[in-house]
Amino acid sequence: MESLTPREVRLSSQRLPIRVRKVRRPRFPYGKDYRPRIHQSGCCLSSLRREVNKEVRAAASEKPAKERLPTETQLKAAERIGRLALDADLSVIRQQLISFALDYERIRATMPAGDERTRRMEVVTAKIRTLAIAGFPLIDEFSQSSSPGQRLLAVVMLQVKPDAQYLPWLAERLAVEKPFIGYHAAVALLTAARVLPVTDHQKILDAVRAAKLHLGIGKDTTDRMDILDAAEKELSGPAKRRK
Predict the structure, then answer these.
(1) 3-state class of 159 per DSSP?
(2) What is the rounded CA–CA span in Å between residue 158 and residue 112?
(3) What is the tally of structural domains in the chain?
(4) Among 97, 128, 161, where does a domain finish?
(5) Sign (positive/negative) of CA torsion 152, 155, 161, 166?
(6) How much is the pTM?
(7) How far is CA 226 from the centre of its chain?
(8) Cβ 186 vs Cβ 224: under 8 Å
(9) What is the spatial distance between Cα 88 and Cα 95, in angstroms, rounded to a whole number?
(10) Are the C-beta atoms of 130 and 86 separated by less than 8 Å?
């Protein structure tokens, strides 16, 4: 094949058709400021889980307060988690709370009675408190459950967020539950005496007295009776004459 001279190559290239690609303008079907949304089950829930795990670890490492009442740290943690969980899927909170209920039941079933078992169950209680506000919409489900661990969830929620509607139910815990849950029901009544308005005081007093009757004769020296006595004293003190 005969090769072309440089001049012939230049001339032939000038005769080739030149095709110019038309540049399309970008289209914005949802507007120029459109940004795709990140699904709630992505970053938001993972952030919530991280915060829950952080607060749960802090609660587990904290020394129990006198009378095993909710501590200031636990109450603040419950408020923080409650705010974070406002837009979250409640099933995430429910799943975590159910795991705490199972932890309580497992500890009670596998460990011998004694201080160490009580300490371990108190750690679980502290964890529940961090989720008490976020999980409060589930209180009806937990209070009516046949699972003692789930009923403990409801009792502990009422320590953090007292509700006069559940005062009779708390009083009944002293008759039907094991001493650990009964004790924490008494703590919830004491918290109600300190937190609920004066208009609820008669209801609280009736519940405390009913709880004492449910506790029965011969239990005058138990820690449960001590807490109920403290609640009754709280209601009769001058500090409770608030509006």
Answers:
(1) helix
(2) 28
(3) 2
(4) 161
(5) positive
(6) 0.75
(7) 28
(8) yes
(9) 13
(10) no
